[in-house]
Amino acid sequence: MSEAREYQHIGQRTIRPDGFDKVTGKANYGADLSIPGMIWGAILRSPHAHAKITSLDVSEAEAHPDVFAVATYQDFPSVNAEAVAAGTARKDLFDTAANVLADTKVLYHGHAIAAVAARTEAAAQAALELIQVAYEVLDPVLTIDAAIKDGAALLHDNMMTQGLLEPASAASNIAARMELKKGDIDLGFEAADIIVERSYETPTVHQGYIEPHATTVRFDDNGPSMIWCPTQGHFDVRARVAQLLNMELGQIKVVASEIGGGFGGKTTVYLEPVALILSKKSGRPVKMTMSREDVFRASGPASASQSKVKIGAKSDGTITAMQASLHYEAGAFKGSPMGPGCMTIFTPYDVENMYVEGFDVVVNKPKAAAYRAPGAPQAEFAAEMAVNELASKLGMDPIDLRLKNAAKEGTQTIYGPKLKTVGLEACLLAAKSSPHYQSTLQENAGRGLAAGFWFNIGGQSSVMIHLNPDGTGSIIEGSPDIGGSRASMQMMAAEVLGVSPSTLNPIVADTEHVAYNQTTGGSRTTFATGMAVIEAAEDIVDQLKARAAELWNVTPEQVDYKNGVAYNLSSDERLSLAEICAKAEKTGGQITGRANINARGAGPSFAVHLCDVQVDPETGKTDVLRYTAIQDAGKAIHPSYVEGQFQGGAVQGIGWALNEEYVYSADGVMENAGFLDYRIPLASDLPEIETIIVEVPNSFHPFGVRGVGETGIVPPLAAVGTAVSEAIGLPITSLPCSPPKLLELIMKRG
Questions:
Q1: Which of 600, 457, 602 is nearest to 519 (CA)?
Q2: Containing domain of residue 650, as a range?
Q3: For an engineered disulfide with 21, which of 27, 65, 324, 742 has Cβ 3.0 to 4.6 Å away?
Q4: How far apart are CA 625 and CA 143, in angstroms?
Q5: CA distance 382 to 721
Q6: Are 676 and 732 in the same domain?
């Protein structure tokens, strides 16, 4: 594959096929569906962050004349008391079930305890007040330090730390430990002329999607029960609900509505299994929605973290050793992105000696969920801040320091594989020659730079392409579109078939109408589902050649196909795709191409970001003056949407760095559970995010694609943090760089 390859449609800026419906309000999102006979579900949530449930009485709610059903943890047949007594309980589902509806303990403020379904929303809310819950309130554990100290209150009495050198002998709030190493870290530091060692912190933050969680369900004894919801992975919703309710996959159909943002936060279940229980009990369709406050208090945010980083280098800038200790908050149940954090923290560097230790720590906050490149922003904030400090102490340009040590083809990663062709050096060179980096910094401003890395994944995708008798067609796929992927699928199919993209209608099908697709996440969709689209289109090309051969009474080998036209190599005859489709009934029926693949060879992605800021010394307020995101896309299928991903990741990372954080009271109540007080960046807060698309093709994809959705959120934390540090002349080790925190630093300096 060559970068110089010319394409007919790939790389164009076509109109988004779902755009009209979205800008005109025709698109149907999670809360937009109504079904005849539908009733409303509501959830009772805990007022405490940590407490034992000593009794739960739902009888008064059940007796309410407008209440049709009540659900509790005991309605999960896979894990309830009956299953435990019978020895059939699914231990792997205990945490999932207890997060959806608490069992014997509430583990965060807002933890769901019970649910009701009633004739109206008002009746459902009134019925919640009839549920009687008695608590034994316990001390909340709200920070990593509090969770790991001796004598800390335990969230789970039976949780033993996994991954220790010796098996754990007592329960702990540390769920797991991970260790990665490469070379000899002690020898690496012995060879260093200069060492930088610091500790860093990042806060709990939310993905900030605009659409709350919602679902409408209809239980059906005689056919598949339907679940309609905004999700990044409707096949995984089906699987998890089936597991919790002991149902077969074929008994559930999940329809993915349009999704008003996800960023990793809509890859799990909260309402769906509860609503299905209520629908089964009531015999009615049930609709449930989360309020914005519910979303903040009881859906999965990104983990807070504490990191210690130590980096050694020779005086010429050669990095000899990189070491880190990373602690991640998992929330109430184990499963933080500690692993990816450990794997990504030093991957931008080709260094012989590395050592990383990670810890997964439970605290009395909602269970963490994915958030674009989960784990990497927290880890690489620490690493990149330390690398920038190292550059300063060495008197080196921070880009030159990175170029001297940059990961490249053949670099041995700490997590296992050697890198294939990657674009970090190209991104660094593009940054160095960019108008932004060449510009003069404003007076009293600071400039920061940081690199970032994300693996990207492949996985299972299934696609069908149906051609109509007039040559138009439908692309039936199963990857929810959260970033313009419909357009990419349309363009890739059109490229192979040699037709206009507008003649192909991309459809995200429900779980009944297309085979299994993994979740839209891991930056996999344009890569993996795109490969399936290409394979399905190539299947169609083979069929078109065979059909044309039959019409011409020649062999398929005597037919060529280019730009939507079949050519008879033994004569001057030709047939367009539309002409072949029009005669398809004479050659065996209408034409469908299929692909069911498990895509391999996802190309890793690197990014480099530049940020200029100015800090008001009287208020601590930070203004972003200029921002540039540079990233390797492999090949940008639709450059506008690639740029949008770069910009979106940058904006979310800027918010994480400057203002966003969960603020808790001493008793574990989140005090800023709304967009008024949880301050995400607005368009008016920021300059236009400049973008530079670097294209170093991924040889494992027919068009060179690398996923781009996640890497862009990794560099901003350190790029902004370094810029703020430069602007105020003080080290930044803790995010966010909010006005009160910066003002305190400035005043302490005097």
A1: 457
A2: 305-456+603-749
A3: 27
A4: 34
A5: 10
A6: yes
24 CB burial (10 A radius; 0-12, 13-18, 19+): exposed
The answer to whether residues 274 and 74 touch, using CB atoms and an 8 Å cutoff, is no
- Angle between helix 376-394 and 716-728 (nearest 10): 40
pLDDT beyond 70 at 741: yes
**Phi, psi (5° rounding) for residue 87?**
75, 15
Those residues with Cβ within 8 angstroms of residue 558's Cβ, 6 or more apart along the chain or in another chain: 549, 552, 568, 569, 570
Chain segment 379-434, per-residue pLDDT in tens: 999 999 999 999 999 999 999 999 999 999 999 999 999 999 999 999 999 999 99
SS3 for 243-277, per residue? HHHCCCHHHEEEEECECCCCCCCCCCCCCHHHHHH
Give the CA-trace dihedral at 480, 486, 489, 495, to 10 degrees.
Answer: 180
With contact defined as beta carbons under 8 Å apart, do 313 and 197 qualify?
A: no
The angle at the Cα of 521, spanning 518 to 524, to the nearest 5 degrees, equals 75
CA distance 484 to 29: 16
Same-domain check for residues 233 and 123 = yes
Buried b / exposed e along 600-617 (16+ C-beta atoms within 10 A) = eebbbbbbbbbbbbbbee
Rounded-to-integer distance, Cα 679 and Cα 670, Å: 14
Single pTM value for the model: 0.97
Bridge partners (DSSP) of residue 693 are 631
Nearest to 113 by CA among 303, 298, 363: 298
- How do strand 319-331 and strand 473-477 relate by DSSP bridges? unpaired
**Amino acid making up residue 72:** T
Q: What CATH number should be reported for the domain holding residue 48?
A: 3.90.1170.50
Instruction: Give dist(CA 722, CA 673) in Å, integer.
Output: 29
What is the domain-level CATH number for residue 561? 3.30.365.10
Kindly state whether residues 699 and 573 are assigned to the same domain: no
Structure tokens at 300: 């999965």
- CA 254/CA 517 separation, integer angstroms: 12
Domains contained in the chain, number: 3
Q: Which residue has the tokens 């069908």?
A: 464
User: Please, are residues 373 and 710 in contact by the beta-carbon 8 Å criterion?
Assistant: yes
Q: Is the pLDDT of residue 737 over 70?
A: yes
Half-sphere exposure of 259 (CA within 13 A, CB side): 26
Is residue 186 a part of any domain in this protein?
Answer: no
Burial of 48 (0-12, 13-18, 19+ CB in 10 A): buried
Q: What is the mean pLDDT of residues 473-480?
A: 98
Q: Say if CB 488 and CB 14 are below 8 A apart.
A: no
Angle (nearest 5°) at CA 99 between 359 and 136: 95
* Measured CA distances, 484 to 514, 582, 642 (Å): 20, 31, 9
Comparing CA positions, the residue from 145, 373, 351 lying closest to residue 264 is 373
- The answer to whether 17 and 486 have CB atoms below 8 angstroms apart is yes
Please tell me whether residue 656 adopts helix, strand or coil conformation. Answer: helix
Asked if residue 279 and residue 236 are part of one domain, the reply reads yes
Q: From the CB of residue 502, how many other CB atoms can be counted at a distance below 10 Å? A: 12
Confidence (pLDDT) at 419: 98
Give me the percent of the chain exceeding a pLDDT of 90. Answer: 99
User: Does residue 615 share a domain with residue 562?
Assistant: no
Asked, for residue 571, whether it belongs to a domain, the answer is: yes
Structure tokens at 384: 């990149």
Q: Mutual orientation of helices 530-552 and 485-497 as an angle, nearest 10°?
A: 30
In a domain, 203, yes or no: no
With vertex at residue 311, the alpha carbon angle to CA 309 and CA 313, rounded to the nearest 5 degrees, is: 175
Length of the chain: 750
What residues are paired with 258 via a beta bridge?
A: 29
CA distance 450 to 717: 8
